[in-house]
Design brief:
nine-stranded mixed sheet; alpha/beta
């Protein structure tokens, strides 16, 4: 009896060791065809070169969805209209930057003098949105005008049998000659090789790939900034000067205002409401008001107003927009603080924020924040390849983040050219990683 229990206990321990960790899941299918399909997707992604630099094992660095995320005609229309509205908004913000002191006050936070008001007459060409679906409606979490994932999109299309060249068609039309990437993010190097190979084999384009530190005064040509090269204030002043005064033609302008999370506070600033409506029209204004979380800049007027931040704390989120003492807080989810904590902890957090500190890290000072409404994602059940248990598992009640990519069309509208979807159910912060299911978007 004792031996039987001991053997059973050891067997349970062995099962626990093998079970996929960090994800709430259950078995969805052990069907041989389903498993073969998932293994095929994984193998194609690996053969295309999807990995992190220096990754040793033949393993995708996220969880592979069994199927693409299907975007029906209704959702597609919503995404396309929101993309058009964002183009109009960004053009309006750039124009208002020259005309309205309040816009400059917001967008110049943390920007060195030489970066303020760059490329005043050039409009943005392309961007990616981070979008959450809430009650069937779209809410923009962030606008990324310097984004990654272009190599991933091709690999995902190939792995899932999606025939769509729209993204690469638009890139090729720019006349691209060079791609520049931040030295600190060398793990993107494998993905850039996918991008380059696709452009070379199908469009006859073979762009150079350079790190920002390799920028030289004699460089020229159409250039794509990739992933984390968006925030030029992080670079040495001498290098910034070379980039600003050089002959390289960046696909997106160097206007620093696009890169800030504070841009949504322009949309919700009452003093700018009339001018924004004038420039973008009622239709796009309404789309943006309904499609963006209500956002306000925390400034000197808030300093003695702790009580106002205590209302609706469980529906609030704080985001760092400038932390010169540690710029890691500018990226991803590190500089995000949710209000659905105890009243005492939230009050302590707010007091740190109003002092210009990082909560629980007072050594970092001079930090600026925005306060936004917390968007609650709809929930999804997503089948995925469980490479540990060797079955198709189901991630239940997952949060979603859509990442649609847009290009401007010759000043006349915009084009939705592809995108991805990320799902998590063990974190309120939806970001790519070992605990996330990842899928391409497939448009009806």
């Amino acid at each position: 009896m004792f031996i039987d229990k001991l053997l059973a206990h050891n067997k349970d321990k062995e099962i626990m060791k093998k079970t996929l960790r960090g994800v709430k899941h259950e078995v969805y299918s052990t069907n041989k065809d389903d498993i073969a399909l998932c293994r095929h997707i994984e193998n194609v992604l690996i053969s295309e070169g999807i990995k992190f630099k220096n990754q040793e094992s033949r393993r995708i660095p996220w969880l592979v969805a069994k199927d693409p995320f299907e975007v029906d005609k209704i959702l597609r229309k919503k995404i396309e209209e929101l993309g058009q509205a964002v183009f109009a908004f960004l053009d309006a913000v750039q124009a208002l930057y020259k005309e309205e002191e309040r816009v400059r006050e917001i967008l110049d936070i943390g920007a060195p003098d030489e970066l303020r008001g760059l490329d005043p007459d050039r409009g943005i060409v392309t961007f990616r949105l981070d979008v959450i679906i809430e009650k069937g409606n779209l809410k923009i979490a962030e606008i990324e005008e310097v984004y990654g994932g272009i190599g991933k999109i091709h690999a995902l299309h190939k792995a899932y049998g999606i025939h769509c060249n729209a993204l690469y068609e638009e890139i090729s039309k720019t006349g691209i000659e060079r791609i520049m990437i931040d030295d600190r993010w060398s793990e993107y190097a494998p993905e850039l090789q996918i991008l380059r190979r696709k452009l070379k084999t199908e469009f006859g384009i073979n762009p150079e790939i350079n790190y920002l530190s390799q920028y030289r005064e004699n460089m020229s040509g159409v250039t794509l900034r990739y992933a984390y090269t968006r925030d030029l204030r992080l670079y040495d002043p001498a290098l910034r000067k070379q980039i600003i005064n050089g002959n390289v033609q960046f696909i997106n302008p160097l206007f620093h205002g696009y890169a800030t999370k504070a841009i949504f506070s322009v949309l919700f600033d009452e003093s700018l409401k009339y001018r924004l409506k004038q420039k973008i029209g009622q239709k796009y204004y309404d789309l943006l008001i309904n499609g963006c979380p209500r956002t306000k800049l925390i400034d000197s007027h808030s300093i003695n107003d702790v009580e106002s931040f205590m209302d609706n704390r469980k529906k609030s989120v704080l985001k760092v927009i400038n932390a010169s003492g540690d710029t890691d807080y500018h990226w991803g989810s590190k500089g995000v603080f949710f209000g659905d904590i105890s009243k005492v902890k939230w009050e302590e957090t707010i007091r740190s924020v109003l002092r210009g500190e990082i909560p629980y890290n007072p050594d970092i000072r001079g930090v600026r924040y925005i306060l936004s409404d917390l968007v609650k994602s709809d929930r999804y059940d997503i089948p995925f390849w469980n490479h540990v248990d060797h079955n198709v598992s189901l991630m239940k009640n997952a949060l979603i983040r859509l990442e649609p990519v847009f290009f401007r069309l010759n000043g006349r509208g915009s084009r939705l050219v592809g995108g991805m979807a990320t799902f998590v159910n063990t974190s309120r912060k939806v970001h790519l990683g070992k605990h996330a299911v990842f899928a391409p978007l497939s448009f009806s």
